[in-house]
Amino acid sequence: MANVSVFNMEGKEVGTLELNDAVFGVEVNEHLVHLAVVAQLANKRQGTQKAKTRSEVSGGGRKPWRQKGTGHARQGSTRAPQWTGGGVVFAPTPRDYTIRLNKKEKRAALKSALSSRVQENKFIVVDELKMDEIKTKKFKAVLDNLKVGKALVILNDNDQNVVLSARNIADVKTASVGTMNVYDILKYNTVVTTKAAVATIEEVYA
To answer: Are 169 and 142 a contacting pair, CB within 8 Å?
Structure first.
């Protein structure tokens, strides 16, 4: 089992924590991780884009000039794609971009992402993250103490003081154990979490 150091909010090491290999020590399945990221990004798309084809643009019912004898190229409608105000060739239409992964694939992808962060020493455990007040400056100081820049902060509970203190810091995102996802784990350079959150993750995913 992997051991990681546990730090306090001042950045000092206060102990170690043994991580469950069933969650944090699995073999990284890059293919599944890729599928999970593609699915998440695809599922964010609204799919509501729309443009009109030549059959949907109003007007253009009459042939603009006779077929022969004018010196112009033959034209059948003023709403053909080559005309200003005409329809769009192969116009986009509303569609559903949803990609679905089954539960086992989702769990395996999440475990792989967490394991990769542990292997790269980009998984930092803090004994607790508590804020007496909503203060961005104080939360930034905690990250500086941990020598962390772009980070995903995983909390065990939705502590509003911590969430709101971190909200205005660029390149920092907070998530609970229930809302963390593969894309965010990979997007941010470091994962910062609490001992309580680690225990919950192991309980849910082991």
So the answer is: no
Distance CA 28, CA 41 (A): 21
What local confidence, expressed as pLDDT, does residue 76 receive? 93
Q: Please, what is the Cα angle at 135 between 149 and 117, to 5 degrees?
A: 30
Q: What is the pTM of this model?
A: 0.80
Percentage above 90 pLDDT, the chain: 67
Q: Is 23 helix (H, G, I), strand (E, B) or coil?
A: helix
Q: What tokens appear for 1 in the block?
A: 């089992």
Which tokens belong to 205?
A: 């995913």
DSSP character string of 130-182: --SS--HHHHHHHHHHTT-SSEEEEESS--HHHHHHHTTSTTEEEEETTT--H
Alpha carbons 105 and 134: distance in angstroms, whole number? 38
